[in-house]
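Researcher: Quick test of sequence recovery. Tokens follow.
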């Protein structure tokens, strides 16, 4: 549209405070008034009221199209998000409706130049959660890209360490890596079973001193398992990109506790007798052998379910704290009452309040060993109330803990799918750029033909319009008409 100078002069002469404009957002028309919009002069709508005096260049820098006849501004934006954003002029705050993508809504607020501080606190929390999800997707995508690509500037030793790390830490990277992971998982189970079976008296043998020891065959199986665990840990430590972070990782500390008792016991058995009495050596070896139970925790390295349970419990510290607080209060109250009312009985089993704690614990948790029990009528009534309160106290926090587990498990599945989806879109983008020329293609997606073939072998591709910007490249920023799912 091109207008005459007379029309522009006519527009400039009107008072912006009393002006009324028509805004058409995605086909939804709305009449707005200048005095209403000028409450927040830095927003795009307030600039529309005052833009007519700046000519059509100024007008079209703020909107997609303009009809001077009816003074209607056209925007190719999301009308649902606009209905929420326009509330800032009425209520001084913005609420995000359910079903709108938080990231898209943030982009809409930035387009309309409405400060994010006007967003309600509950909506800010939702936006923050979505940002964390996108950062997690970006991290997963970057890890996969790092695995697929090799830096040609690295020396052979650095490349070898990357290959070893990928082989041991990424079971899905290749078939041999998957076989190795399954083998390690089976050896952990075998080692745990051997530890349990070795305590069966019928399978034990007598040593030279006539004492029962583990069968030599079981001892050899355990030695083979420990050798495998040791070799696996050493290779992972050598190939680790960050050795300090590797050594302080919880799962790697568990690996150390699963391996060290074997070697310490071996050293004490062969050298300890020269330094201390034989009895002390045997006691130390026996204590170290009990530490072998820590190797069962190595299963968490190969089980996503156990990892999810661990993370869910970390997120449920508040609920677990409430559970322990309820039980602690109940245990103290009912043990004191039980001790007091049972003192009237001559054969009472409640000797003291601290001793009554044990009775209160097994009663409130509905275990009831029966080693300590009330004998008076009031004591039995106190016991009945205590286990009823125990059932209620345990049941109350359980539901939030289960919800945290289910929510985290589903979230991890969604993030995993989203990361794969993002890689598919990046491959499609790289394929389009390869067809039109490679001058604009991102360096980490181009490489040589072998790397591109390797990329295609690892991924399955499908067309989609849900691309979201995660990495730093400008080519990956979402256009304003795209939305993320």
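Model:
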């Amino acid at each position: 549209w091109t207008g005459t100078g007379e029309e522009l002069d006519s527009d400039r002469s009107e008072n912006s405070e009393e002006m009324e404009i028509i805004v058409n957002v995605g086909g939804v028309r709305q009449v707005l008034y200048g005095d209403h919009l000028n409450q927040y002069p830095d927003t795009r709508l307030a600039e529309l009221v005052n833009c007519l005096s700046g000519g059509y260049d100024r007008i079209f820098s703020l909107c997609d199209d303009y009809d001077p006849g009816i003074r209607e501004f056209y925007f190719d934006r999301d009308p649902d998000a606009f209905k929420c954003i326009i509330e800032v002029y009425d209520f001084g705050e913005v609420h995000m409706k359910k079903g709108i993508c938080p990231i898209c809504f943030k982009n809409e607020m930035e387009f309309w130049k409405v400060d994010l501080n006007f967003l309600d606190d509950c909506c800010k929390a939702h936006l923050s959660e979505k940002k964390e999800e996108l950062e997690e997707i970006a991290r997963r995508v970057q890890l996969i890209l790092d695995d697929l690509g090799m830096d040609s500037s690295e020396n052979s030793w650095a490349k070898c360490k990357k290959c070893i790390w990928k082989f041991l830490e990424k079971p899905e990277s290749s078939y041999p890596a998957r076989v190795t992971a399954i083998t390690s998982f089976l050896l952990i189970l075998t080692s745990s079973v051997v530890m349990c079976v070795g305590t069966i008296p019928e399978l034990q043998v007598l040593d030279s001193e006539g004492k029962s020891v583990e069968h030599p065959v079981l001892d050899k199986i355990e030695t083979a398992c420990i050798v495998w665990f040791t070799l696996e840990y050493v290779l992972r430590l050598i190939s680790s990109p960050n050795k300090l972070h590797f050594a302080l990782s919880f799962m790697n500390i568990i690996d150390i506790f699963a391996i060290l008792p074997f070697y310490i016991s071996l050293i004490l058995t062969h050298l300890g007798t020269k330094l201390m009495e034989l009895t002390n050596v045997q006691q130390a070896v026996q204590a170290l052998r009990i530490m072998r139970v820590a190797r069962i925790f190595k299963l968490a390295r190969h089980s996503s379910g156990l990892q999810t349970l661990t993370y869910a419990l970390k997120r449920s510290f508040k609920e677990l704290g409430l559970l322990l607080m309820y039980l602690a209060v109940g245990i103290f109250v009912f043990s004191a009452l039980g001790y007091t009312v049972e003192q009237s009985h001559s054969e009472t089993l409640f000797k003291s309040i601290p001793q009554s704690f044990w009775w209160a614990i097994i009663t409130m948790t509905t275990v009831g060993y029966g080693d300590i029990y009330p004998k008076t009528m009031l004591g039995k009534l106190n016991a009945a109330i205590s286990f009823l309160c125990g059932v209620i106290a345990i049941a109350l926090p359980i539901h939030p803990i289960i919800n945290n587990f289910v929510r985290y498990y589903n979230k991890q599945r969604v993030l995993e799918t989203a990361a794969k989806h993002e890689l598919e879109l990046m491959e499609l983008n790289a394929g389009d750029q390869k067809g039109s020329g490679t001058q604009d293609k991102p360096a980490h997606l181009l490489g040589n033909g072998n790397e591109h073939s390797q990329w295609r072998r690892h991924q399955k591709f499908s067309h989609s319009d849900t691309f979201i910007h995660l990495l730093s490249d400008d080519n990956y920023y979402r256009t304003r008409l795209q939305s993320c799912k």
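Strands lie at 20-25, 28-33, 65-67, 72-75, 205-206, 212-213.
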